[in-house]
Design a protein that fits this description.
The protein is of the alpha/beta class and 340 residues long. It is built from 13 helices and nine strands. α11 packs parallel to α12. The mean pLDDT is 93.
């Protein structure tokens, strides 16, 4: 019997050693809570689950910051800068980006339920939506997109943590991570294979706001839109207005209705923005009518399709994400049309 236990222990020791190293290093920052999930100034960073970044940052700073104003949406929402939004709100507004990569309506609902459970009074909410946000959240099973058990409950703890641990064991990632950690040298293969991120950024750990200041400075100097970056906008658009197929089904409509009901309980000022995407495809009229019925026609602002914001390619970093000056124009239009 002792021999069997000894052999089992010898078999488990390497696994336990790797697990101990993983817990100690916490490369994806999913074991503990951190004051700053994205320290600036590093040549390379590890892509993190933005659900955890948002929830962990909120929990760490909640007591001191007394957040009452929230921006919800996918990564497209992160360029609605607090310095542009806050002047449109009451003087006591404390703003927070509660975004997630490849966010879904179910994900936004889960975050709003989470805030309600914590007794947070949501006074201002900006919902940044588009057609993609109505995809089924069950399709997102990579570690970067999984819902955070801090928000949705600890029944999701094991799949969340095990997915991150298995990603740590990926040979390509592990090689790049350990290479960079112990040498401090950023090598081309690390970012070329999307193992580590080389985009320079600035990050506000209180508002959970990320900015590409370096790229914005490049754009202002006429250096950002290189031939290589311009190729990312190909093929060119043809100027023909198209509508997306309806995407808000019964389940999504129920989720939207619950979101509206919770926010109504807080007497929240809600603005729903349909993003001005580069593809210039308008959200279907059926979906717009549903959003208007749920939140009120005066609260829904549609910037999809062909318009002055979506026409210049210089309003976009690439085909997916629009720049802060476009988001600023959206905010100005939204709050001019309906003052706070």
């Amino acid at each position: 019997m002792k021999g069997i236990l000894l052999r089992a222990l010898l078999f488990l020791l390497p696994i336990l050693a790797v697990l101990a190293v993983y817990i100690y290093l916490d490369p994806f920052k999913v074991i503990g809570l951190y004051a700053n999930y994205k320290p600036s100034g590093q040549a390379l960073t590890i892509p993190l689950n933005q659900n955890r970044v948002s929830a962990g940052t909120f929990l760490y700073h909640e007591e001191e910051s007394h957040y009452n104003s929230f921006i919800f949406g996918s990564s497209r929402s992160m360029f609605y800068q607090v310095e542009d939004w806050k002047p449109q709100l009451n003087s006591d507004a404390s703003c927070f980006h509660f975004d997630a990569s490849a966010e879904t309506i179910q994900g936004i609902l889960n975050k709003i339920r989470f805030l309600k459970r914590r007794g947070v009074r949501m006074e201002n909410v900006l919902l940044v939506l588009d057609v993609d946000i109505f995809r089924p959240y069950t399709l997102l099973n990579e570690h970067l997109y999984l819902e955070d058990p801090l928000v949705v409950g600890y029944a999701k703890w094991l799949p969340f943590q095990s997915s991150h641990f298995m990603s740590f064991l990926d040979r390509k990632f592990l090689r790049a991570y350990l290479d960079y950690r112990f040498t401090g040298v950023a090598k081309p293969y690390m970012s070329a294979l999307n193992l580590l991120d080389d985009k320079p950024f600035q990050y506000d750990s209180i508002t959970n706001e990320l900015r590409y200041t370096y790229f914005e400075n490049q754009a202002q100097q006429g250096l950002y839109y290189t031939p290589e970056r311009i190729r990312k906008f190909e093929p060119p658009r043809d100027g023909i207005e198209r509508f997306s197929a309806p995407v808000i089904d019964i389940e999504a409509q129920a989720g939207l209705s619950e979101i509206a009901a919770i926010l109504s309980e807080s007497e929240c000022d809600v603005r729903v923005v349909i993003s001005p995407l580069y593809n210039q495809i308008r959200m279907s009229e059926a979906d717009i009518k549903i959003l208007q019925a749920v939140f009120g026609a005066h609260s829904v602002f549609d910037f999809s399709g062909i318009n002055e914001l979506t026409t210049p390619y210089t309003g976009y970093y690439e085909r997916s994400h629009y720049r802060p000056h476009v988001a600023r124009s959206v905010l100005d239009s939204v709050y001019t049309a309906r003052p706070h």
